[in-house]
Amino acid sequence: MADKEGHKQKKERASCFGYPVSIFFIVVNEFCERFSYYGMKAVLVLYFKYFIGWDDDLSTTIYHTFVALCYLTPIMGAIIADSWLGKFKTIVYLSIVYTIGQVIMAISAIHDITDANRDGKPDNKTLHISLSMLGLILIALGTGGIKPCVAAFGGDQFEDHQEKQRSTFFSIFYLSINAGSLLSTLITPILRSQECGIYAKQSCYPLAFGVPAALMVVALIVFVIGHKMYIMESPKGNILLQVINCIGFALNNRFRHRGKQYPKREHWMDWAEEKYDKLLIAQVKMVVKVLFLYIPLPMFWALFDQQGSRWTIQATTMDGNFGGFVIQPDQMQIVNPILIVIMVPIMDSAIYPLIKLCRINFTPLRKMTVGMVLAALAFVAAALLQLQIDETMPKFPSTSQTQLKFLNVESTSLPVVVEGQDQFMVPGFNASSEYLTLDKENVTISAGGVNDTAFLKTGTRHTVLMNAAGMRNTLDDLTEKPEQGLNAIRFVNGWENRLNVSVKSDNVHADPLDASVYLLVPHGKVNFTIFDGGDGKCHYIMQLGFGSTYTVLIPSTFAFGQTCSESFEAVQDMEPNRIHMAWQVIQYFLLTCGEVVYSVTGLDFSYSQAPSNMKSVLQAGWLLTVAVGNIIVLIVAEAGSLPDQWAEYLLFASLLVAVSIIFAIMAYFYTYIDPNEIEAKFKELEPEDKKRKEMQMTAKDNMAYVHNENTNIKQTKI
Q1: Are 199 and 118 in contact, with CB atoms under 8 Å apart?
Q2: Residue 471 CB-density burial (10 A; 0-12 exposed, 13-18 middle, 19+ buried)
Q3: What is the pLDDT of residue 690?
Q4: Level-2 CATH architecture, domain 17-237
Q5: Residue 151 belongs to what H/E stretch?
Q6: Does position 1 have pLDDT exceeding 50, yes or no?
Q7: CB 337, CB 181: distance < 8 Å
Q8: 635: Cβ–Cβ under 8 A, 6 or more apart, which residues?
Q9: What's the confidence (pLDDT) of residue 691?
Q10: What is the pLDDT of residue 324?
């Protein structure tokens, strides 16, 4: 009666174009949730690097720890939904946790909370780190916990006769995932690149995290609004737990019967026959057979997920100017979803049919092997690109070296002799062409014929100001590229009075024969205003690229009323990034082709080889390979001692090639099966097995009865 009423209730539900209205709430929820997740994730590694101040390795480690946790928690979510709360309550409760985590992340990025000296940098990094780690843990619990529930909950909304609508729903559902990913990867880097702050303007990470948090609030509200329209099935128990218990019992039983006196069994899972029926054991055998093939798979994900970490950091050292439109480093990740949309239909409608025409047996496992090789080639391309980038990067001093450059504030050339070096000339109102690298801290310098000693520290760079009277000042230069593709500009005052320099809201000053602090300015045309304490004012305009540093010399002959651009001399200390971000498209293309061939095929293969009631078990196993892959990255990032990034790329490529060879060998010996055929065979035998077990139980009961009767007779006689 209850089933009939439930069926009747389904028929009376509101529908639109033959679809349950409830699914529209689920699709909107998924779009907003994916926008929230991918939007936050797109800017995460740059938040670690530039806001928190971690180096590349630690930023990469924490990023991949977070991603790994996101792919470990789906198992928890599936067990909670199937065994305890049900899908609806699990989604709602974990979405609340998720939303709180996103809000905490947005709060952790507000530098004004601890910026007591109002310099635009947080003073209490510990508080910001603690908040961000708490936020990321809650986000991982939320996004991972609801991952296995939402799609399945959407499928529950359809009746048995709505198979076509259900199939269309899943297509729309996954389209909403890609749409959310695509838009968020495009929008949140733009939000991050804005400047915000109460006292000092900085990259707007609060906005970049705040918008995803707002979308998560919308996702939760939309999902809850539709609760009266949902079909909510009660928890029926989790098949994953049954599989784990069955495997555990078989292993334990085999261990207890490991002696030679016990007869061997055909398969180690047959040791579970004492407790579990043969159909379940046969199904578990099929699952274990596929899970064994999963062992090499994490290496692919170790490479794939570095798009958001190492490749994004690589993009920060490149030129992002696309015909006047600036691409942010974290926006390059958008290439992947765009190429997926393009490559999936090309593969299905052109590449695979062409291979079939060539009579090549391109089995699913062979496709996955090719996907691994393509991903390895993508990292070879990344390594080659990194080599080109490294050639354009400055050669900074090691911890045992120091570097010197000379800036002549006189109008005539002056000779310079550095201890242990040959004499060279420094042109008037200009600088020496290159830095001198020295292996000592204190060095004697003859500038303009006047000897002096410079007291320096190893691992540093300096510019020596000089005129006819000798050394006049020693300036501290930058020992790394400006962050986030900004340009560092300072002004050296060769004039007789203090001068002030302003650009946008920043104001600095330069005393005579001294330099201003560095001004960090973005790419493009920048207008500096130079003024004295009186009415003197002029404008100096520079056209800048990405990541350059300049020392602008204001000569002693300068006078207000002249054109600044003609009077000043800009000395380039570090050249701008010369390698264009467009070169990354090659590695993205190879990796995306690998993903299409590997990931789509892998899921299809897994489902085709899994029993009908154990698809979720293989889904959990697949997600687990992603988690393990990210753990591999954080181990290499922390434990690796490779000095060059290109070498690390080649290491990952080599490891994946080795793993692909192992996988190809495993695939060669794999025998494809038809799970439905095997299940049907065991279902036919099931009644006979039950009858046989009943007869065995009856025989045991009869024997026990006879034994008891004999015992009673003996006791009576006694």
Answers
A1: yes
A2: buried
A3: 53
A4: Up-down Bundle (1.20)
A5: helix 125-155
A6: no
A7: yes
A8: none
A9: 55
A10: 77
Residue 688's pLDDT is 57
Token pair 């192992």 is found at: 662
Give the residue carrying structure tokens 């990913």. 181
Q: Give residue for tokens 């990259």.
A: 203
Burial 238-277 (b: 16+ CB within 10 A, else e): bbbebbeebbebbeebbeeeeeeeeeeeeeebbbbeeebe
Q: Answer whether residue 528 shows pLDDT above 80.
A: yes
DSSP notation for 287-319:
HHHHHHHTTTTHHHHHHHGGGGTHHHHHHTTSB
Is 541 in contact with 565 (CB distance < 8 Å)? yes
585 CB contacts (<8 Å, ≥6 apart)? 335
Question: Is the Cα dihedral 322, 327, 333, 337 positive or negative?
Answer: negative
pLDDT, one tens digit per residue, over 350-369 is 888 899 898 888 888 999 99
pLDDT at site 300 = 96
Whole-number Cα distances in Å, 223 to 12, 91, 602: 21, 9, 31
pLDDT bracket for residue 267 (50, 70, 90): confident
Is the pLDDT at 384 greater than 80? The verdict is yes
Q: What is the DSSP string of 526-587?
A: EEEEEE-SSS-EEEEEEEE-SS-EEEEEE-TT--BTB-HHHH-EEEEEEPPP-SBGGGHHHH
Backbone angle region of 18, left / alpha / beta, with phi > 0 → left and psi within -120 to 50 → alpha: left
Name the average pLDDT for the chain.
Answer: 86
4 DSSP 8-state letter: H
Contact (CB, 8 A) for 517 and 490: yes
In angstroms, how far is CA 459 from the centroid of its own chain? 32
Strands 424-426 and 414-418: antiparallel
In this prediction, residues 451-457 reach a mean pLDDT of 86
Mean pLDDT of the 240-269 span: 86
pTM: 0.85
Residue spans of the domains in the chain: they are 17-237, 242-276, 281-320+328-392+581-673, 402-574
pLDDT tens-place string over residues 188-227: 999 998 888 888 788 899 999 999 999 999 999 999 999 8
pLDDT at 56 over 70: yes
465: amino acid identity, one letter: L
What phi and psi, each to the nearest 5 degrees, are found at residue 286? -65, -40
- For residue 413, CA distances in Å to 121, 432, 449, 467 come to 42, 11, 12, 9
Q: What is the DSSP letter of 645?
A: H
The 10 Å Cβ neighbour count of residue 160 is 8
pLDDT value of residue 550:
96
- Average of per-residue pLDDT across 467-482: 90
**238: pLDDT strictly greater than 80:** no
Question: What secondary structure does DSSP assign to 217-260, as a single string?
Answer: HHHHHHHHHGGGG---PPP---HHHHHHHHHHHHHHHHHHT-ST
CATH 1.10.10.10 fits 281-320+328-392+581-673, yes or no: no
Asked if 17-237 and 281-320+328-392+581-673 have one fold, the answer is: yes
Rg from Cα positions in the chain = 34
Greatest alpha-carbon span in the chain = 134
The two three-digit tokens of residue 492, written as one number: 């050296």
First to last CA, the chain: 60
d(CA 679, CA 287): 13
d(CA 375, CA 592): 8
Q: Is the pLDDT of residue 378 over 90?
A: yes
